[in-house]
Fold this protein.
Amino acid sequence: MDIRDLWIEALAGMLARPMRSALTTLGTVLGITTLVVTLGVAATAGNQIVGRFDELIATAITVEVPDKPAGLVAWDAPAALTRLRGVTSAAALAQNDKSSNLIVTANTLVDPTRVTGKSLVVVGSGPELPRATHGRMTRGRFFDRGHVERHDRVAVLGDQAAKILGVTGLESSPAIFIGGRAYTVIGILGDLRRERVLSTAVIVPSTIGADFGLKNVTRVLVNTTLGAAGLIATQAPVALSPNRPGVLRVVAPPSPQHARDGVQDDVNGLFLVLGLVSLVVGAVGIANVTLVTVMERVAEIGLRRSLGAARRHIAAQFLLESTLTGLTGGVIGACLGLVVVVAVSAARQWTPVLDVRLALAAPLAGALVGLLAGLYPALRAARMEPVDALR
Amino acid sequence: MSTDVIHLDDVSRVFPTEPPVYALREIHLRVGRGDYVAIVGPSGSGKSTLLNTLGLLDRPTSGSYILNGVETTTLRDGARTRLRGREIGFVYQSFHLLPHRSVAENVMLAEVYGGHPRGGRRRRALDALERVGMGHRVEFVPGRLSGGERQRVAIARALMGSPALLLCDEPTGNLDSGNTEAVLDLFDDLRDQGLTLVVITHEDTVSARADRRVRIHDGVLTEE
């Protein structure tokens, strides 16, 4: 039997009752649609979440510098770091246990009825800090290189620290007092998007930090372009401390791939099971209808046998019919699923993410369902004795 | 080897029920090339069993059946199927046309199995339809044809592949007298063209047209 004849006979058998064939494919359509939607939406959503992470976390690297040995990282290290391709900004910070708990007051009055001193963190830093924390000067200005080199006794307050200390305006050049020494407040730093603890800190130029034992850089904040974090994480220690890169500890963002996998694992399980169940139901449907069809076409089977069809020809025809039914369901299901994925993405203003392998595998899965469903009916048809079939 | 198309020798068919049914009892039958034989008998006489045996749809319990020079009783299933497709054209009482396929497709179906070339298949089908006088209904579906026309299409299908034997089972059983006459005329034409015909019937008008009548009763065959 020519393979083309087999195709023609199977197609004709399927199209003889188009309505029934259409209804038969319905189960497979539902199953495949569910699977494609589940996998497609999960992939799309996973990518979106990763996209949001990207802006903040995926580009942020923190390098922790141990206190000893002293002077591992110089204060001008951020300038050296920004020469690396992929680094958008960097800033060095100094903070230690002693400086984390200093009493800061907004005036020198001693009022026995009130506690006027607030315990705040004092941090030494270079002039690059606002950019590196994605912060904004809500009032005044940040100190510059001039302040640092002149050892000016100026301070910038985090916005929360300013509130705690009651510093609201800078028109009168308010001062704060730390350990009996006065510092002029020249600005308030707010809207921090990383290193948010600085909103309750007092930030002073690195050269003034020595007043509080803040001589050495203890932390370097690095921001990179998207995708450069992994590379910069390996390069930063060498750039910051060429002699002893090994003692620096780099805190790099988690790889985006992991975030995506995690999201998919969470979302998918239930819907995948649902899709598989619908596929099984679809297979049972195809098996049922094919079996009914076989019983209805007993005379046709007998006729084909009398025309010289072997048992395997009969089996092949019914198997191909059910496979084509499943394939049709798979193709329709894949199309519907993709439309739903695109629609959901459009509604959420996401970028739909489509795995081409998924679009191709879905119709094949449908065909496989049809093939499995057709096994038993095809066997029944092939086993039929021509004498009985023609009676 | 003789030139007989059919050579039945001592053929019996017993159905192993309780008690056993002897559908055919030691039958001898020879049908030569170009013969036109009618097999007549009441229902339950073993007619159908004889037809199934002759058509290689059933296997005799004992005896020998030589079809066109080939001993069939020792053949395996696949070889019997091929032989059936090649040597025998079936014509049924209920036509057995596929309802959703055109007349031409129904006739072409006869060449789907058994290694016939695809090229020229439609030409051969049209020739066969022309032969039975149905060349003007090629693209009709069977549902739009009269009973007589349907039977002629079925005969055209049986003629595809030039079988050695045309085996007809009550070919006029579903036809009125006018259509019966037309089909019987067609059988006469085919016989004149040298085809071997075996017609199983219980109608005297049909058997009267045959050259030879064989009666079967209780599984026993007698020449008339």
Remarks:
- The helical segments of chain B are 47-54, 77-87, 103-108, 121-131, 147-159, 177-192, 204-209.
- The longest strand of chain B covers residues 21-31.
